[in-house]
Amino acid sequence: MPEPSITSRLQLSGLCFLLQILLIILFALFVRYNPERSPGLDSQELNCSWRNRDLGLQPPRSWDVHLQPLLGFGLLVTFLARYRLGSVATSILVVAFVIQWAVLIQGFLYSFQNGKIVVGAQSMVSASLCTMAVLISTGAVLGRINPVQMLLMTLLEVTIFTLNEFILLSLMGVRDRGGSLTVHTFGAYFGLMVSRILHQPRVDGRQDEQDKGHQADGFAVVGTIYLWIFWPSFTSAPTFCGTTEPWAVLNTHFSLAASTLATFVLSPILHDEGMLWMVQLQDATLASVAMMGMAGEMLVTPFGALTAGFLAGLVPLLGSRFLTPFLRSRLKIQDTCGIHSIHGLPGVLGTLLGTLLAALATADAYGDRLQVVFPEVAQGTRTAPGQGLLQLCALPLTLLLATLGGCLTGALLKAKGLSPPSALPVWEVGEGRDRGACSKERRSSTSV
User: Fold this and answer.
1) Cα 149 to Cα 247: distance, rounded to the nearest angstrom
2) What are the helix (H) ranges across 31-84?
3) How many angstroms separate the CA atoms of 69 and 60, rounded?
4) Where are the alpha helices (H) located in 184-217, listed in sequence order?
5) Distance CA 123, CA 107 (A)
6) 226: burial class by Cβ within 10 Å (0-12, 13-18, 19+)?
7) Residues 187, 188, 193, 195: is their CA dihedral positive or negative?
């Protein structure tokens, strides 16, 4: 294959330069740190809506949240045999852009005061949640679009994600602090629709060969350990009110444990060789938290958390065996990382679980926590069944925005002015013994 033209090679560097200069200008004009000290816990508990949060500095908690996209998710994308750590480099590119863009877009909607966006540690936590949704979406198209297309996809998705989040959490009063709906479900179906619009039979057939590298390795081990360490902090970070945080942490731990055992139960049955791949534990870990995201702060009970986690652990295994091939063959959706079974379906199930718990919420069961978890119900402006109905209505709305947004983004990425995946240089990290022999093959393959 001929070397890419100078125009193609400058697309990535030019786009990164323009976007960064634009972000610097916008930050200079609008973004300021919060000059005041954080309000005390008592004032938080009296007014604990999703976005009415402490803007002060809480470095330990925010660090945990920021590490999750880089260490937990970053190491999940190394399974493509041709790219390995090159895929991680693309993930870092996405994270670096999303953090900046999300702070701006979310700031204009949530913390725009006197012509300025006031930011703090919780602003970064919110941006990290958005980052997770974008990384989930990229899992559907990994290896099939180039970095320029990845940045353009990110630019649109962050905007649509924030719009969906604002409608659900601020206007409708939906409770989804752990992101079952706003992060996992939205990110999965947005990415799947982009993948569907970008479907190319020959390219997707070549992707099947790349997917043969989907094997357990050291990166899967490290990634799973990081997920176990940081998931409880990640899911409890948005539950900034002290009374609900222990529930989110404990429910997440119980769910993780049960999903892991579910993997050991089902994997030997579905696979003739009877071996367990480490990547299956990764998938179960992700699915359990997608399942527990909305319900984590609610009264799931330890029994409920274990049950939900066990069911969530079964979904990725069954989905990869039966559903993913159906999506590929019948619906022409190439799902590189299996995000539909790992994030999409568990996110939908988690939303249904949260809907049920919201509809059953009572003052007797929650006590003082009801004011924190369901403030409208506690104040009498909304009944518990009414809150449950809103939680349920949020699901089709999110699916609609994710589907329309994914279709629009996919159509944009197919524009003739953009280089095809193989026309731009990518990061390549391989072992010394095969780097020279495989360089020509890698240049001719689909970029990350």
Assistant:
1) 40
2) 41-46, 59-67
3) 16
4) 186-197, 201-210
5) 8
6) buried
7) positive
Q: How far apart are CA 226 and CA 222, in angstroms?
A: 6
For 166-224, the pLDDT digits (tens) are 999 999 999 998 899 999 999 999 999 999 999 877 655 555 554 444 444 677 777 78
- Domain 59-419 falls under CATH 1.10.3430.10: yes
Q: Which helix (H) or strand (E) holds 103?
A: helix 85-110
Token pair of 416 as six digits: 């003739």
Q: Are 73 and 102 in contact (CB under 8 A)?
A: no
User: What are the domain boundaries of the chain?
Assistant: 59-419
Q: How is residue 355 written in tokens?
A: 């809907």
Q: What is the DSSP string of 390-420?
A: HHHHHHHHHHHHHHHHHHHHHHHHT-TTSPP
| Paired tokens of 122 | 């919780």
CA dihedral 235, 237, 241, 244 (to 10 degrees): 20
Between CA 430 and CA 422 the distance in angstroms is: 18
Q: Answer whether 116's CB lies under 8 Å from 160's CB.
A: no
Which residues have a Cβ under 8 Å from the Cβ of 435 and sit 6 or more positions away?
428
Task: Starting at the earlier edge strand, list the strands of the sheet with 31-33.
Answer: 31-33, 116-119, 112-113
Give pLDDT tens digits for 207-220: 555 444 444 467 77
User: Distance of alpha carbon 203 from its chain centroid, rounded?
Assistant: 25
Indicate the pairing of strand 116-119 with strand 31-33: parallel
Q: In terms of Cα–Cα distance, which of 241, 178, 238, 296 is closest to 46? A: 241
Phi, psi of 115 (to 5 degrees): 80, 10
